[in-house]
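Morning - 2'-deoxyadenosine-5'-diphosphate inputs below, output right after.
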Amino acid sequence: MNGKEVQQVLVLIKPDGLKKSLTGNIITKLSEAKLTIIGAKVVKPSRDLAEEHYKQLKNQIFFDNLIKYIRGDLHGEPYKRVLALVYKGEDAIKKLRTIAGATNPEDADPVSIRGAYGRIMRSGLFENVIHCSSDPIEAEREIKLWFQPDEITEEIYPSKKIIQKNIQAKVWEK
Ligand code: DAT
Ligand code: MG
């Protein structure tokens, strides 16, 4: 395989990316990787979703701020949301993380997304515009957290059909 493995990646355009009107720029920049988008939706992350997403960082001093950040509490309405995307293709993780740039915007290549648009907040938190999964195991965990199988155009991980009784659902009135 040697880096040519087909991978999936969860990308989140974080609330600062939305507030700075960077959605189009970011998607254009990520398209340089020549991957396929196989899922996309706007999500208002619940506290549980945000904490589960960043659970490896639970012991970091910036964890509470990080949860506020990803939920949009630091950016206010109408930015309390993220654009969640799933990309698929050869070597997708490395390609997208290179375009995204280093975690710390000060260390990031100036032409990367984080280098060009990220900043360090007064609290010390890195406000770095996008999230990209870091490895295939994390990507699978994150994609399964943010998306249901039917929301992705391809069968990327095994799924099963079940019949759910007494499940409340919201449907259009007409
Ligand atoms: P990445 O998003 O590059 O995978 P990560 O998973 O280590 O980085 O951290 C998740 C987010 O937490 C990161 O995008 C910004 C914030 N963060 C990480 N390390 C930080 C630090 N040392 N100081 C402030 N914010 C940090
Ligand atoms: Mg990470």
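Note: The chain has a mean pLDDT of 97.

O.
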